């Protein structure tokens, strides 16, 4: 049923104007409020009550799906994060985090302060279920009830109360997390925020497990390069294909003692791709192919996009600028990824500068000669690649910051594998 049909059904039952009812529904749906809860909210606004019918079913968290409608759960509160959003023109503070019982874990958003904290066991009645990042999420609103339980609810093995995480374990969508990090890079910028010009800090933080980009929306004085900080109540969202840590007005910072590794975590390509994106990662793989669009390329002087036949997708006909890059497909037996190398790395592998590559192309009367030379050097050999990995509908890309021949001993690696499998 589309929104017009829902609005017509509600307007008819309430005796109200359909267009007004539709606008109210659209405002709620814009913030991903489930349709059933949105309809209940509209009924209450016009004095129509909760819509009648029996109460929601009590379910285990492991049985909740995106289409579960309204449910009642008894669970342990794992995390509670706070964030301010603008809803229907007003600033609203919401609570976000995770709940668990012995069957599983589910994220939630509470639209008011119900008073629960991490570690509490609660029964939540009439919680709506919506889909968020492909998973079910509980939506706890005005029509929901929360009651404290005296007996602690059991949670799955390995699930802990509290939001403390290493950077390598953070995922886009995490809320109410606590990290201990060193600020490795920071810059101050002024952006157009929802209340006009806003000063923020952005940069890179690190711990012993990895590095991630961050944004401090309050531009705190304590967040300076070299500072080692405990950051409580941060949330994580995807930024350019990788997790990014966000500090809000509710984030608390305190001094901490942190060791930062200079090494990126080394994982298989399958693990890296399966993570959905990693800011700083190292993989080993064999180059299967040097893709089209490698070697000599042309870029738009205004936006840097690739130019085809003098045409930029954004700026039309342009006078393009020459550049060098490599797009190499790596395979380690678990998955493949396209490693993208900038001009500096490409010049190292090619063994010449951009000007020398252009001269070689003129001598051969073909720009393809540069890509052919690069492919001859790379294909069939194993390389260690470090960089930022992102995954989208077109596949996985690794923007390389380091690209070097592997110095791993194949015999030692084979022996370790045989030992691992008990052969």
TrEMBL record:
It comes from the Archaea. Keywords: DNA-binding. CDD domains: SoSSB_OBF (cd04491). GO terms for molecular function: DNA binding. Residues 42-65 are annotated as: Disordered. SUPFAM superfamilies: Nucleic acid-binding proteins (SSF50249). This is Single-stranded DNA binding protein. It comes from Halobaculum marinum.
């Amino acid at each position: 049923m589309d929104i017009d049909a829902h609005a017509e059904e509600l307007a008819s039952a309430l005796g109200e104007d359909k267009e007004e009812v539709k606008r109210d529904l659209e405002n709620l749906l814009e913030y991903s409020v489930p349709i059933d809860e949105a309809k209940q909210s509209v009924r209450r606004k016009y004095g129509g009550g909760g819509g009648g019918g029996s109460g929601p079913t009590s379910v285990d968290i492991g049985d909740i799906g995106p289409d579960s409608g309204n449910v009642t759960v008894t669970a342990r509160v794992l995390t509670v994060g706070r964030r301010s959003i603008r809803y229907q023109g007003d600033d609203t503070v919401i609570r976000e985090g995770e709940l668990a019982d012995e069957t599983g874990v589910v994220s939630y958003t509470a639209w008011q302060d119900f008073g629960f904290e991490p570690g509490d066991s609660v029964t939540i009645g009439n919680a709506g279920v919506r889909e968020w990042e492909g998973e079910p999420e509980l939506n706890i609103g005005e029509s929901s009830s929360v009651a404290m339980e005296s007996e602690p609810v059991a949670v799955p093995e390995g699930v802990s109360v509290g939001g403390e995480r290493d950077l390598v374990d953070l995922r886009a969508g995490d809320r109410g997390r606590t990290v201990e990090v060193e600020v490795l890079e920071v810059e101050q910028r002024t952006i157009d925020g929802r209340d006009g010009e806003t000063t923020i800090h952005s940069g890179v933080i690190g711990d012993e497990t990895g590095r991630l980009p961050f944004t401090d929306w309050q531009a705190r004085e304590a967040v300076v390069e070299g500072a080692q900080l405990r950051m409580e109540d941060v949330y994580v969202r995807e930024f350019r294909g990788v997790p990014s840590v966000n500090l809000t007005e509710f984030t608390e910072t305190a001094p901490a003692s942190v060791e930062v590794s200079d090494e990126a975590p080394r994982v298989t390509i399958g693990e890296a791709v399966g993570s959905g994106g990693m800011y700083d990662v190292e993989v080993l793989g064999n180059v299967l192919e040097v893709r089209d669009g490698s070697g000599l390329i042309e870029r738009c002087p205004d936006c840097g996009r690739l130019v085809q036949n003098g045409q930029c997708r954004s700026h039309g006909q342009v006078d393009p600028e020459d550049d060098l890059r490599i797009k190499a497909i790596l395979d380690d037996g678990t998955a493949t990824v396209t490693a993208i190398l900038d001009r500096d790395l490409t010049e190292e592998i090619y063994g010449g500068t951009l000007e020398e590559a252009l001269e070689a192309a003129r001598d051969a009367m073909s720009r393809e000669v540069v890509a052919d030379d690069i492919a001859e050097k790379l294909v069939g050999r194993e390389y260690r690649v470090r960089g930022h990995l992102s995954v989208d509908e077109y596949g996985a890309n690794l923007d390389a910051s380091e690209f070097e021949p592997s110095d791993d001993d194949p015999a030692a690696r084979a022996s370790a594998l045989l030992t691992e499998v008990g052969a």
